[in-house]
Each structure stands twice: as structure tokens, then as C-alpha cells.
């Protein structure tokens, strides 16, 4: 008996950074939440500060994206808009 069904060439690749545990599914970075990630944001938040020779992020060393300093500036701006330094209340 012959099987005339078409077979799929579906494949799945998964890479995990040994340094920070970041995940790439089929070559695309995804956050732990499953949402699509940004390699540049990951670099700004983690890799450029803590990455070493183990880091597999291709954007490591590239400036830009999100950073902790930028996030703090955003929080301070939000706090000023909401009547002062929100964390001191």
C-alpha cells in the first residue's frame, strides 16, 4: 500500500543563550512571555552590560534599543506628569 499524503517540511529550531537564558525560536528572539522580542532591546537591557563570550545575541555591542537608563527616564517623566516623584509617596 502506498501513502499519497504530502509530507510537511516543518522544522523547529531553538537556541538558548548560555549566559542569560534568552531564547531564539527559528532564528527569532522571543521574550519569556512568548511575545516577539527585540535583539537590540535585549542587548541594551542585558547583553551590553552583562554579556560575555558566551552571549549569542547578534546585536550584542550595538547601541540603541531599550536600556535601564531609558526606562528610568520614562518612569521619572511619568512621575512628574502624575504630580512629583511617585516612588517617594
Provide a brief overview of the structure:
The chain is an alpha+beta fold.
Give the key terms.
89 residues; alpha+beta; 3 strands; 3-stranded antiparallel beta sheet; 2 helices
For the CA atoms, what is the radius of gyration?
20 Å
How would a textbook summarize the main sheet? 3 strands, antiparallel
Number of separate helices: 2
Distance between the termini: 76 Å
Report the sheet-strand fraction: 5-15%
Query: Using DSSP, what is the number of strands?
Result: 3
Number of domains: 1
Helix content: 25-40%
Give the class from helix and strand content and strand pairing: alpha+beta
Mean pLDDT across all amino acids: 87
Task: Tell me what you see in this structure.
This protein has two helices and three strands; from the N terminus they run βββαα. Strands 1-2-3 form a three-stranded antiparallel sheet, with no helix packed on it. The longest helix has 14 residues, at 68-81. It has one domain (14-84). The protein has helices at 39-50, 68-81, and strands spanning 14-16, 23-25, 28-30. The protein is elongated and about 75 Å long. A hairpin with a 2-residue loop joins β2 (23-25) and β3. Helix content is 29%, strand content 10%. With 89 residues, it is of the alpha+beta class.
Amino acid at each position: 500500500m502506498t501513502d499519497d499524503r504530502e509530507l510537511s517540511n516543518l522544522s523547529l529550531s531553538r537556541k538558548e543563550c548560555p549566559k542569560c537564558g534568552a531564547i531564539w525560536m527559528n532564528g527569532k528572539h522571543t521574550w519569556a512571555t512568548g511575545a516577539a522580542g527585540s535583539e537590540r532591546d535585549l542587548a541594551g537591557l542585558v547583553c551590553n552590560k552583562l554579556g560575555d563570550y558566551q552571549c549569542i545575541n547578534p546585536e550584542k555591542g550595538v547601541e540603541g534599543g531599550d536600556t535601564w537608563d531609558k526606562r528610568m527616564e520614562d518612569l521619572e517623566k511619568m512621575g512628574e506628569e502624575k504630580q512629583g516623584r511617585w516612588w517617594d509617596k
